[in-house]
Structures are given as structure tokens and as C-alpha cells.
Amino acid sequence: MLLKLSLTGIKGRLRDYILLFSGLVMASGIFYMFEGLATNEAFLKSNSLVSSVVLIFHLGTVLLSIITFVYILYANSFLMSMRQKDYAMFMMLGAKGRKIAQMVFIETFVVGIGATMVGIVVGIGLSSVVQQLLVKQLALKITHFAAVSTKGILFTILFFMIIFLLAALVNAMTIVKKPILNLLRASETPAPATRKTVTLILEVIAGLVLLAVGYYMMTQVMKLAVLALVIALITIVLGTYFVFHSILIFGLNLLKHRDKIALKGLNNFTLSQLSFRIQDYTKILSMVAMLFALALGAITVGLGFHNEIPKMTNITSTYDLVLNNAQKVDADKLANITPTSDVTYTQKEDQDTVYYDQSQFDQHPLEAKKFIASRTTKTVYYDGQALKNDVAASDELRNLELPEQSGKRHQFLSPSDFSALNEAPTELRVIHVADFMKDKAKLSLLVDENLKNNPTINRDISGFSQKVLVYDTYNALFSGFEFMGFFLGIAFLTMLASCLMFKILSGAKSDIQRYNMLDKIGARRQLLLASIRKEIGVLFLVPGLLGMIHVLFGLQMFKSLLSNPYGNLWLPFLIFLVLYLIYYGLTVWIYTGIVMKKSA
């Protein structure tokens, strides 16, 4: 009988249970995605320049476990808010507390473990899809990645079994120990909301000062090193807490005292709701803001490394394409590219010397890159006379020659003397194109043919004369950072947005009576909907906005690693905003369905 009543109750709230189940599936899927990387030491070591990357991911596991634990608490709170009155009604009808406890335990544990199993399958699918999308869109080169990780699966199952076992025990004990009247009226118990004005103002000042100190320390990382990081971490965490514990409440109080704002529509009700709710949300909003900053920062820095690759390639390489023995190259392949500069230097050689026509260099001087500062180069030009007299200039030419030519001396002759030599001529051809990235695939085919025509060239050792190979080298070097940044950033953003959503929805039951009351006294439905959108919008907007500000200041720390850490900043922020808007819209829709069922 109890089972039948329980199933009937679940059927009556099927949409809420689908939401709960899908949220738990997403949580376990994201947890698996992270653990699939964290437990794959071969992937971490082969795709990162940081020697302690494995330790960093173990610390990340601890962090994600804490976030997931908090997420499960809010999801569990959402479950209990749906079922407490049902369980109380069962008790009033004569059901024994022990039987109710068993039903609660089984329901919580089965829903949790079922969601975990489905989540692992979803996580495997998402890992594969995300990996393929990132590799394809960003042209990443990663090795030892596996969407299916046995260690990741086992760790995920074990972690969630323990979490849901604890949640089921807590739920069962809560139902047994809590009086029936408390269960019936659990959603009607208000939280205290008294704050002294002086204390509030002092906390506002402290919060602003702490954030200012933290942001300043981020700009001093190069000077103060670890000390700056420690001070920034402590002050920003505390400052973030005070933003929600005092600054936001202080701002809401100021708005409530402005009649033009407070008395318009249901603004006074919305502001009062927010003031009441924020005090209970301080910790979760602070956590969400900080971890959103970390997740968004990971995506931003990952994209920064991606943007750095073509810049470093241009600094390192002079020509877009170098062809040795160019007379052997397929003319049809060369016709596929559109060069802005195409110069051919004719060579002749004997056992000891490589001969050149000096006039060709006088007409088209050899180009080379010269470093003048960190990440800054200028192009220098060497004519025939410079190559003849300057050893350094001659060495620049050697960098473009075949390995077997590097030990020979250079001799630059007049056109007539060069023509008089009996040796067979060969061609050294150097090319610039208008858009390297656009023609990269075509240039790569020509580089492969050049390697095929000249088997003595070592692809790894001689690669820095070919721009394509330089790009591939840097891309392989930074791909691990890019992949981890995007992969983990998107996963963490999804988890934290879900966490905030469930926190808001877990308190929805207590708001039903308030919205019903407004409906009964004649408040228009459009005004009620607008109030809901504004209230939830503030709860989403403030931690997201603060997280963005943290990122903008935090990028100062990467000035030593990235030439322009703020380049193409719109892309990670767009990803963040799109994901955020999806969760905001979903939360508004579900919350509206809960608090305004009768009005619908």
C-alpha cells in the first residue's frame, strides 16, 4: 500500500522528479568527465608542461568532490521539499515511522544510483563529443585521451554510492525524528533576517577594501610571487563573501527606500524577497562566484594559449614555405596557394662549396627574424654583399639549406661566373602567402612533398625553417592546456549553474503561499512573472558578474605567459553567458511552475 501511495505521489510530481533525475545525471556525468582525466596519468603527463599536473588534478578532485557534495545536498533538499508533506500524510493515515524511513531510504538511494549509472554513460558520450569538437574546432593535438576510463567509472560509482547512502540515511532519520506538524509546516518556517545598520556598513567597507587589495595583488604576482597569490586568494574569498553578506543587502535596502523604484509594480515585494533570501544564500553565492571565476578563467586562459600559437609561430619563422630542390615540386600543388612573395635562389655545389648568384640576393634580399625584446622581433634583410661578408647573415641562409649543405662554405659569384660553373643547378625557393592560417592545409601538403623529395631533412631538427612545422610544434606544446581549460571550464560552469538552480528551487515550496496570496488580492499574472524573473535574475546575475570581474583582474597574472591575455575575450564570455542564460531560463520556468500552479 505504501509503495502504491509512493508511486502515486511520484507520478503526481513527475516533472519535478524528471528535473531531479536529470540534474543528478548531469552531476555524475560531469564528475566522471573530470575523473576520466584525473585518473589518466599518461594523458596528463604527455599533454602538459607542468610536472605537478597529476597532483593538481588530485587537488581538483577534492575541489570537485566538495562542489558535488554541496550540489547533492541541494538536490536532496529539493527532493525532501517535494515529499515531506506526503510522508507526513502517510503517518497521519497510520503508517509506521519505520516503514516510512525504509521507503525514504530506498527512494533516495535508488534514484541516486540510477542517476549515477545513467550519468556515467552520458559522461562517456559527452567526453567523446567534447573531445572531438575541441580537437576539430581548435586543431588540437592530444595523446592518450580515452573517453572510457575504468578507474574513472569505479571512482564515480564509489563516490556517489557513499554520498547517496549518507543522503538516504539522513533523509530517513529526519523523517522519523521530525514531528508530523513540523513536516507539514516545514516550508512555512521563516529564517531570521535581523541585521544592525552599523555592522552592515562596516562589512560593506571591509568587503570593498578586501576586493581592492586582492585585485591589486594580482597585478603584483611577478614581483611578490607566491605571497601575492596567497594574499589575493584570502582577500578575494573574504571580499566575495562580504559582497553577498553585506554589500548586496545594503544595495537592496537603498533601493527599497527609493519610492520611484520600490513602489513601481511589485518591486517592493521582489526586493523584500531578495533581502530575505540573500542571507540564506550568502555561502552558496560566494562559492558559485569564486568557482565561476575559476571555470571562466580556465576557458579564457585556454583560449589565450590557443591565440598565442600563431603569434609565436610568426615570431619564430620568417617564411611561410621553404622548398629545397624546388625544381622537383609538383607545379599543380604550388598553383593552389596564392603567394604575395615568391623568390627562387639558384644553387650549384661541389664537394666543399655551395655557390650562389649574388645578384639574386641583391634583387631579393634574404629575410631573417631578429629578436629585439621578449616576444618581439623585427625582420632584417641581407643582400648579396652582407651574406658575403657577415658570418651571422650566412648562418641565416644555412638554416634554410639541406643538412648535407650545412658543413660547406658559401661562395657568392657574379652572374657570369655562376653560369660558367659546370655543376647542375638546384633551386632554393622561399614563399610568403597572404593568409597563413587560410592556406595552412595546402602549405602542409607542400612541406610533406619537400620532405619526401629531400629525405635527409630531419622533420624534428630542421622543422623551424618551415612555418607549418613550427605551428604544429607549438600547437602540440599548448594543446594539453587548451583542452584541459575548455573541457574542465565548461564542465565546472555546468555543475555550478546546476548547483545554483537547485538551491533556488529547493526554497520554491516556501514561496507558494506568498504568490497565492498576491494572486488572491488581485496582482496581475504578468507582474508576478516579472517579479520571479527579476528575483531569479539577480541571484544568477550577481555571482556571474562578480565572477567575470574576478577573471578580468585575474588575467593580470598571465601577462608573463601570454602576450595579450585579454585577446578575443568575447568568446569565453559568450560561452559562459549562453550556458548561464539556459540555466536561468530553465530555473525560471520550473520555479514558476511550482509557485504558480493554481494560477496556471
UniProtKB/TrEMBL annotation:
Assigned keywords, A-Z: Cell membrane, Membrane, Transmembrane, Transmembrane helix, Transport
Q: Which spans are transmembrane here? A: 17-34, 54-79, 100-133, 153-176, 197-218, 224-255, 284-305, 483-505, 536-558, 570-591
ABC3 transporter permease C-terminal domain residues are 62-179
List the InterPro entries: ABC-4_Integral_Memb_Prot, ABC3_permease_C, ABC_permease_BceB-typ
Give the top-rank taxon of the lineage listed in the UniProt record for this protein. Answer: Bacteria
An example GO BP is: transmembrane transport
Major location, coarse class? membrane
- Give the record's membrane topology: Multi-pass membrane protein
Which compartments is it annotated to reside in? Cell membrane
Gene Ontology CC annotations of this record: plasma membrane
Entry-linked PANTHER family: ABC TRANSPORTER PERMEASE, ABC TRANSPORTER PERMEASE-RELATED-RELATED
Into which family does the record put it? Belongs to the ABC-4 integral membrane protein family.
Could you identify this protein by its name? Peptide ABC transporter permease/transmembrane protein
Origin species, per record, is Enterococcus hermanniensis
